Amino acid sequence: MVGGRAIFALLAMLVLGTGLAQDEIEREGYFEVRSASTEVIDGVHTLDARLQLILSSEALAALENGVTLTIELQLQVIRERRLFVDDVEAELVVRYELEFSPISQRYIVRNLNVGDQDSFATLYSALNSLGRVQGLPAIDDAVLSANRDYRLRLRAMLNTERYPAALRVLFFWRGEWQLQSEWYEWSLER
After folding, report:
1. pLDDT tens for residues 136-154?
2. CA–CA separation, 184 vs 89, rounded Å?
């Protein structure tokens, strides 16, 4: 749960502005999946992907004022059907937390699915690391039908669901918090 002080800081920034220095340029954030592919290793389809993750000025200010951001990767395995609507066969969600530690002046990236944690000297290197997905186990080949065609799709997003309802309402109306890539799709090679 987000601490009370962090919520207050975030609420103040949303209502009063970001508090950024005047010489700093306001920027819009965006998330983009640049490439993605899978390969079968020991019977498991593993994901390699490259993402571009740029935080908006408002999200960056919140991060630097103690708000932990949750970045989520969503992967869907879709079974293609000729006469019916395609079916989402499986979904995988990988959640990461990004936080700034003012004491150490470092950015911390935590994989919430497996509990791994890394520390980075710059925001650029933290986001760059988040944007390089390598060998992520996606789906076991044994659960897929041999005579069916499948495609995968991947997107990245800034997840604001863990914040209190009052903040989520503010996020809804402020586009700077609506960071989500388009779906990136490709055929599953078997």
Report:
1. 999 999 989 888 899 999 9
2. 17
pLDDT value at residue 31: 96
SS3 of 113-153: the string is CCCCEEEECCHHHHHHHHCEEEEEEEEEHHHCCCCCCEEEE
Whole-structure pTM value: 0.77
- Chain centroid to CA 47: how far? 15
Which strands sit side by side in the sheet containing 106-111, from one edge to the other? 117-120, 106-111, 87-101, 69-79, 150-159, 184-187
Q: Which residues contact residue 114 at a Cβ distance below 8 angstroms, ignoring those fewer than 6 apart?
A: none
Amino acid (one-letter) located at 66: G
Do 71 and 156 meet the contact criterion of CB atoms below 8 Å apart?
A: yes
Token pair of 42, please? 């020991």
pLDDT for the residue numbered 82: 78
Tokens read off for 173 = 């109306």
